[in-house]
Structure to design on (424 residues):
């Protein structure tokens, strides 16, 4: 049975990833080959946008792993070149394949210093960049070069609305690609992943799209001098987002350190809080939580046992699942009081406080923390390990654990989950 699951796990993710990477590679080869064969149309425009994209790739310095758009200026420049119809009042003639060639060549030139430092780009992000830029150019360039856009839409507000529609379609295309790649890599449900990507469009994604469209419109009227003018605001936005991300990372590290206090004091087994947090986040995503909800859930799972620090007599083995409901409730209240003094969001304290309530009265995050904590406690103390712990949780669905949460936990564990605590 385990061999069958491993086979599915290997074959499943390869398909979508291979198709997306293969399509991006074919487009790249076609673009570069066509441009080398026929030459560049408007070399000045190609050079200016190429320099902007390469510079945008250089600004990856300081980007963190997993960042949705580590090079927003490069993405905006690529999008602007795909949607460029005029330059200084004169129509452009570059097509889809040249757009892809310039974007790829400039992007590769910009990432050379990163590769030299051992920080190569994410292949998934490169594939997404090629495919989304090609999609935007394919929707715009043939229509504009054939004169259909100017004949049917004209200039002014209708033209800007047309670009806005293309931006929305391109953003949707990129979100679908990103969700498909993450689904293939991690095995999470597609729906919540797509919601995550769509919500992210309200942040840096909207800034990239707006800057790309404004660049295209600005160059159409003022020429290439508009590029540096419209690049500065996005660079400032990127710096601000990096600082905000650094603050969030510091907060997460602080909370993780506080969670380890129960382990250092001998109240809980080593790694218990981290295991519960990782597994709770996976179960939360399985049940449709996303974005900020998952962050709050993770923080609550890390700090769910911190109330044990206030106990005069430590719980044997740190396992709270076998305790009476009254004792579990007392530990939860003590933990919530501690959490409220740490400065984390109030929602975290409420989840810690509610984890010992009857599950029919709990919100979903508290149900998840309760069930995952019980699983890790039971898997670490039972002789039959994880399978026996799951069976005991299923037997407790009438009173202690919500059936949907237990079955979601089982699905996560079947895909790999996290390793259960060692017995004893």
């Amino acid at each position: 049975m385990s061999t069958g699951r491993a086979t599915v796990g290997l074959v499943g993710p390869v398909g979508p990833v291979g198709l997306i990477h293969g399509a991006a590679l074919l487009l790249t080869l076609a673009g570069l080959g066509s441009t080398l064969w026929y030459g560049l149309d408007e070399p000045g425009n190609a050079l200016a946008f190429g320099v902007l994209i390469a510079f945008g790739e250089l600004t990856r310095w300081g980007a963190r792993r997993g960042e949705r758009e580590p090079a927003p200026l490069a993405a905006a420049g690529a999008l602007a070149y795909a949607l460029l119809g005029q330059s200084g009042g004169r129509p452009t003639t570059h097509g889809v394949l040249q757009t892809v060639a310039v974007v790829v060549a400039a992007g590769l030139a910009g990432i050379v210093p990163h590769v030299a430092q051992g920080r190569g780009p994410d292949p998934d992000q490169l594939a997404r960049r090629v495919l989304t830029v090609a999609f935007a150019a394919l929707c715009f360039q043939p229509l504009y070069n054939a004169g259909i856009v100017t004949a049917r839409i004209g200039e002014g507000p209708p033209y800007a609305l047309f670009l806005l529609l293309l931006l929305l379609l391109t953003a949707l295309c990129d979100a679908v690609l990103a969700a498909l790649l993450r689904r293939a890599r991690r095995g999470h449900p597609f729906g919540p992943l797509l919601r995550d990507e769509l919500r992210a469009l309200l942040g840096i994604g909207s800034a990239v799209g707006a800057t790309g469209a404004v660049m295209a419109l600005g160059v159409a009227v003022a020429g290439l001098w508009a590029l540096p003018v419209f690049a500065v605001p996005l660079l400032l936005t990127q710096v601000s987002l990096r600082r905000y991300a650094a603050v969030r990372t510091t907060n997460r590290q602080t909370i993780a350190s506080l969670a380890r206090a129960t382990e250092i004091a001998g109240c809980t087994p080593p790694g218990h809080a981290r295991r519960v947090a990782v597994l709770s986040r996976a179960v939360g995503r399985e049940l449709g939580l996303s974005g900020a909800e998952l962050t709050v859930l993770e923080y609550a799972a890390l700090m769910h046992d911190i109330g044990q620090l206030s106990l005069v007599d430590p719980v044997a083995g740190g396992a709270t699942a076998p305790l009476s409901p009254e004792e579990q409730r007392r530990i939860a209240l003590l933990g919530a009081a501690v959490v409220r003094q740490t400065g984390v969001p109030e929602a975290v304290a409420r989840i810690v406080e509610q984890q010992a309530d009857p599950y029919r009265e709990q919100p979903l995050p508290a149900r998840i923390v309760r069930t995952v904590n019980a699983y890790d406690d039971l898997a670490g103390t039972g002789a039959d390990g994880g399978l026996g712990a799951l069976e005991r949780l299923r037997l407790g669905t009438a009173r202690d654990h919500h059936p949907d949460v237990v079955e979601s936990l089982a699905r996560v564990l079947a895909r790999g989950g996290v390793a259960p605590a060692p017995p004893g």
Observations:
- The longest helix spans residues 2-38.
- Strands lie at 86-87, 90-91.
